[in-house]
Amino acid sequence: MKKLSSLDIRVLRIFEATATSGSLSVASKKLGITQSAVSQAISQIESILQTHIFDRSQRPFKLTPAGIALSRRAKQIVEDMDKLVIHVKEAALTSRPAIRMGMIDSFAATVGPAIVKHATTTASHLLLWSGLANSHASALLNRQLDIIVTSDDLSDVDNIIRRPIFSEPFILVVSKSRASEFQGKDLTYLIEHMPFIRFSIRSHFGAMIERYLRRSGYSPRPYLEIDTADVVMAMVAADLGWTIMTPLCLLQGRSHLHQITPLPLPGVGTRRTIYQLSRENEYEDMAELFLQASKNTLETEIFRELRSLLPWLKGQIFLK
């Protein structure tokens, strides 16, 4: 009995591949193993059963009567095992929670792919919303989303777990054709010589920039007001105006990088912190896993690219 127990699914799979093809070499290629491993498995089966299962005097190999009898049952056993594996995997998948996440556009476009890849190993499926932070905050509070990545920490809301991810400064972005003119100039000069392209004040991001301008005593005239970073970048690249954004937004609109020039924000600047928010006592382990995946992607990929593009950033962008 102990010897018969060695007749496992692996050797049966090798036997069935060889029986189907009549060739050790074809079976080895199909299974991705060496021809020697195939030969050893066949010899193992014949030793256990104490009979020949292939007539090796013919090419391709022909099954002996014993081999034919084994093949009839082996094929069914291999198929049943494959079905069993699929069934178990499906059961494990359905036991994982479905996660609903919201991410601001700049984060979704840059760090998001790594989070989605990570989520596929821990959740049965992932619903991902991108867009404005305000809508994500409302969806989290209304239980339409479970985890959000946002610049709004909802400081006035109870029972929220706030996990800071990273901090980045706001920067100035102008068209490449005007870079030499605006280099080292203050915002008053920019406002007087070229229109300001705004991020929509409907967004938390746009509202942050407007508060900064107002506190600093600047009032650019109304011109263009846009929701997304890639469209803002397209307008700046077309020499239609200048804007204020962050390095992460710059990467979101990376297709326009060759037509624009990022510059430090003159004077006393401002910055934003990106948070991961979730409700207390819900999905805490998964939220922690996503947080670590976010930080790892930022440190190993995003920050490295930004420091290459903007050497003057130095220590101004960092994990929290």
TrEMBL record:
InterPro entries, alphabetized: LysR_HTH_N, LysR_subst-bd, WH-like_DNA-bd_sf, WH_DNA-bd_sf
UniProt key word Transcription: yes
GO MF annotation list: DNA-binding transcription factor activity; transcription cis-regulatory region binding
Membrane spanning stretches: none
Key words of the record: DNA-binding, Transcription, Transcription regulation
Ranges of residues in domain HTH lysR-type: 7-64
Cited Pfam families: HTH_1, LysR_substrate
Keyword Ion transport among UniProt keywords: no
Family stated for the protein in its record: Belongs to the LysR transcriptional regulatory family.
Full protein name: LysR family transcriptional regulator
Native organism: Pelistega europaea
